[in-house]
Design goal:
Length: 171
């Protein structure tokens, strides 16, 4: 069952993210990986910044989580993680399909350029990589992340062509 997570789920969301993020160790740049990958304070800050976490639950236990953040003309998929022992079971696809349909607008996702499994997952689910110059513009427009992360990330979109993603006013 897919459901909106609430404050009672924060500890479980934290555990799922940090369990699944071990896959990044030795893959993403060493200066971007740390343990825990996301602290509880960072998680609370992300929720406070408008990220709504949705979870896939079986037997009253969250198996995976995915955040979505409304950014007016687009929605961002943020922090998509499935428990290590539940990978390859379709949970990520179910969450992504649900949230993309719910968004009703173009959806963007940023991930590490070296996380080839994540890129393959999004492409398999109808997303495409945006061009490098468009990636940089989108990351500067919709995310608040360090330049080093921008350098080592990619952006994928479920819209056909960059024209489906509106430029912010004034550009």
């Amino acid at each position: 069952m897919i459901r909106l997570c609430n404050s009672m789920d924060a500890e479980e969301i934290y555990r799922i993210i940090n369990d699944a993020a071990h896959a990044y160790k030795g893959v993403i740049p060493d200066d971007r990986y740390h343990e825990p990958y996301m602290s509880m304070d960072e998680l609370r800050s992300e929720i406070g910044d408008g990220i709504a976490f949705w979870g896939y639950e079986e037997g009253n236990r969250l198996m995976g989580v995915m955040g979505i953040q409304d950014k007016s003309e687009v929605a961002l998929i943020r922090h998509a993680y499935v428990r290590t022992d539940q990978r390859k079971s379709g949970i990520g696809t179910k969450l992504l399909s649900y949230l993309a349909a719910m968004a009703g607008k173009p959806v963007l996702v940023g991930t590490w350029e070296s996380a080839d499994w994540a890129i393959r997952f999004y492409i398999k689910n109808g997303f495409h990589l945006v061009a490098p110059d468009e990636k940089t513009r989108l990351l500067h427009t919709y995310w608040t992340i360090p330049e080093r992360q921008i350098e080592t990330s990619v952006v994928l979109s479920n819209s056909l062509g960059s024209t489906a993603v509106a430029s912010p006013a004034g550009d």
